[in-house]
Amino acid sequence: MYSSSIFEANLDDFSALEPQRAPIGIFDSGVGGLTVLRQIYRQLPNESIVYFGDTARLPYGIRSQAEILQFTREILTWLQQQQVKMVIMACNTSSALALETVRQEFNIPILGVILPGAKAAVQEGKRIGVIATPATAKSNAYKHAILEIAPDVQVWQVGCPEFVPLIEQNRIHDPYTAEVARAYLEPLLEQEIDTLVHGCTHYPHLTPVLRSLLPSQVKLVDPAVHVVAACAQELDLLGLKNTHPPLPTRFAVSGCPQQFSQSGVQWLGYTPMVEEVRFNDSAISQLL
Prior knowledge:
Rossmann fold, isomerase, Glu_race, cell shape, peptidoglycan synthesis, glutamate racemase activity
């Protein structure tokens, strides 16, 4: 696979750094979190990143809360071992079902995507549609967050179980994907929404498809943009913003590194070197 010398050098680099130069951890079930990573590159170009994709266990949207909580704990434990200074939970399902619990358990700042996305949505419109994984939609996390901020708005949610697998299979421009999207959007269009929230970090990859099906006046909200803005504020508040050049981004997955690398090229503009990490009975092993 990949030489252990590369991995050990990266760990040595991170462990030797002062707190400001430590990396930010980002995790998602797969390539969806790359939308957050791209925003880090744009908004916080000096930050080093450790990215984890739990590709062996996606999609998260059909998992139970207990499973999501277990997966999140395992990933956060691994990220802590990588000496990250902050974690962005670039997964709406985990943000909806596990964020509040793990914040009590881990002594590290952890940001979720739902509250930043909800704050942005209420600034855009009064009739808000949310497309999300079934688990996120069922949790009503976006609806609760939006209505807590602005009780006078109306919110409709649709669970979209097929989107994540289609995106992970690189079928965005497949005619079938457009058919599926049309079916998911239909009940929201019937409600004459003025704003649509990407309730999953995978979904911005579908923007061209969704835009072609939505009226031009409907505004799209990408929570990835806003969670990174919140991250920047938090780093300033904690005095942890890095002002030095970043280290190369590290990528790790629980599934096939080659598949993630091939999928990631189109979103990143370069071919990432990807490590494989396995979680066995809560024991974490690095395969090199």
